[in-house]
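Write out this protein's structure.
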Amino acid sequence: MAYEEPSENTQGIIEKIRNIIKEEKAVIGQYQAGVGWEYSGEDISNETKALNKELDNDDFQVIKCNVLHLVNNGTIHNRTGHLLIIPLFGSANFGPDEPVLRYHHIIQTRTIYGQNLDLIIVALKKK
């Protein structure tokens, strides 16, 4: 199954993660100057585990799911060959004519542009 549109269950999990961040219930990890941080904590962990289960399918295995805040642009390294980028907050794009879709599957390392971006990054492995 290709990752084109999130299911209702997936949308619900994404919305829960969005609310955890908005309500400032997420733990903010170590700040990397000029880069950003990873969100963590029990609430985020529970929802990313649920998201892992939801996104695992016949074609792809979920390897890891992170929720990140990027201060100003960032390079998204793709070590597994397949990443799913799910924007939460902020306006992100991969270039002037390529906005980040609400469910963006990439197959290479990419630079993402935007300020104060909150993103879910899901590393996938082709089965």
